[in-house]
Design goal:
46% strand; elongated; alpha+beta; 2 domains; 2 helices; 6-stranded mixed β-sheet; Immunoglobulin-like; single chain; 5-stranded mixed β-sheet
C-alpha cells in the first residue's frame, strides 16, 4: 500500500515539474516576441528658428519596431492647448499659421509603407512668408499607421503619434512669464505630498519653466528629499498648472520648500507640512484624550482624599 502511495506522489510531482517547465518555457518565448504592430517616431519635439522669406528644411524618423509591415500617412495640423493643457489639433489661432507653411516635397500629406524592422527619414520643407508674425508658431506632424496584419481580430487598427513643432521668430519675440499661484497644503493623509504652481505666459512666444521640491526635517534642517527639476513649456497667452510631488513619504512633520523658475529667476516658498494617515491622527487624539482623562481623575482623586483627611 505504501509503495502504491509513493508511486502516486512521485507521478504527481513529475507532472507538476513538467507543467512548471512548460509554463516557464512559454513565458520566456512570449517575453522575447515582438508585437506585430508597433510604431515609434523620433524626435518627439522639433524646435525651429523662423526667418521671414526663407525656405527651411528639417526631418524626423518613423520606425517600424514590430513584426509586421504597416501603412502610414503623415499630415500637418495646428497645435494649441485647451484650458487643462491637453492638446488641441483642430482649432486655429494667430499662433498656428505654421501648419500652412509645411509641405512634404510640395504635398500637404505623405504616405508610405514600412516593413518590419525598417525605418525611414522623412524630410519636410517650411516656406516662411515675408510677413512673418512676431513670436511663436506651432504645429503638429501627425503620423497615423494602419495595422495590415489583422492582429486586431480581423479589424484594421490604427495608431497615431504626433511630433510637436515649435517655431520662433526671434526677431520680434516678446518673452513674458509670471508665477500667479502656488498650491501647498498642510496635512497629507495618503503618504503623497501633492503641490502645484501656475504660470501665466503674458508674451507672444513659448517659455520654459521649471520647479522642484526640497524637504528637510522640521528641527535640525537635515535634508530628507530633493526632487529633480521638472521642466515644462508654456505657450503664449495661456496659463499652465504644473504638479510637483513627493511620494512614499514617512509619517512626520517636515519643512517643505517649493522652488519655481520663471524667466530665469528662482522663486521659493517654504511651509511646514504634516504627513499622517487619518486613522493615526484619530488614535493619537484618543490617546491624548485618555491621558488627559487619567490626569483629571488623579487630580480629582487627590482632592477628595485631602477632604477626607481634614474631616
Amino acid at each position: 500500500m505504501r509503495r502504491i502511495m509513493n508511486i502516486k506522489w512521485l507521478a504527481a510531482a513529475t507532472l507538476l515539474a513538467l507543467a512548471v517547465g512548460v509554463l516557464g518555457t512559454r513565458g520566456a518565448v512570449t517575453a522575447d516576441e515582438k508585437p506585430s504592430f508597433q510604431m515609434t517616431v523620433s524626435p518627439a519635439k522639433i524646435d525651429i528658428s523662423l526667418k521671414a522669406g526663407e525656405t527651411q528644411a528639417d526631418k524626423f524618423e518613423i520606425i517600424n519596431s514590430g513584426a509586421e509591415s504597416f501603412d502610414y500617412v503623415v499630415t500637418v495640423t495646428p497645435y494649441r492647448v485647451n484650458a487643462d493643457y491637453s492638446a488641441d489639433l483642430n482649432g486655429d489661432s494667430n499662433y498656428t499659421l505654421l501648419k500652412d507653411w509645411i509641405t512634404f516635397d510640395g504635398e500637404k500629406t505623405l504616405t508610405g509603407t514600412l516593413e518590419a524592422g525598417e525605418q525611414r527619414v522623412v524630410e519636410f520643407i517650411i516656406e516662411v512668408p515675408e510677413d512673418l508674425p512676431g513670436g511663436g508658431q506651432y504645429a503638429a506632424l501627425v503620423i497615423r499607421a494602419t495595422d495590415k496584419s489583422g492582429s486586431g481580430g480581423g479589424i484594421a487598427t490604427d495608431k497615431q503619434i504626433g511630433i510637436l513643432v515649435y517655431g520662433r521668430n526671434a526677431k520680434d519675440a516678446d518673452e513674458c512669464g509670471e508665477l500667479i499661484k502656488r498650491s501647498i497644503g498642510f496635512w497629507f493623509m495618503d503618504g503623497v505630498v501633492d503641490t502645484s504652481y501656475k504660470v501665466k505666459n503674458c508674451g507672444n512666444v513659448h517659455i520654459e519653466v521649471g520647479g522642484n521640491l526640497i524637504v528637510t526635517s522640521l528641527f535640525g534642517g537635515k535634508k530628507k528629499y530633493e526632487s529633480e527639476v521638472v521642466e515644462r513649456l508654456v505657450l503664449p497667452e495661456t496659463e499652465r498648472d504644473i504638479a510637483l510631488k513627493w511620494e512614499d513619504v514617512p509619517i512626520g512633520l517636515y519643512k517643505l520648500t517649493q522652488r519655481v523658475m520663471v524667466m530665469g529667476e528662482w522663486q521659493e516658498k517654504t511651509k511646514m507640512i504634516l504627513v499622517m494617515p487619518l486613522y493615526v491622527m484619530i488614535l493619537g487624539l484618543l490617546g491624548v484624550a485618555a491621558l488627559a482623562y487619567l490626569v483629571w481623575r488623579t487630580i480629582v482623586g487627590k482632592k477628595k482624599t485631602k477632604r477626607k483627611i481634614r474631616r
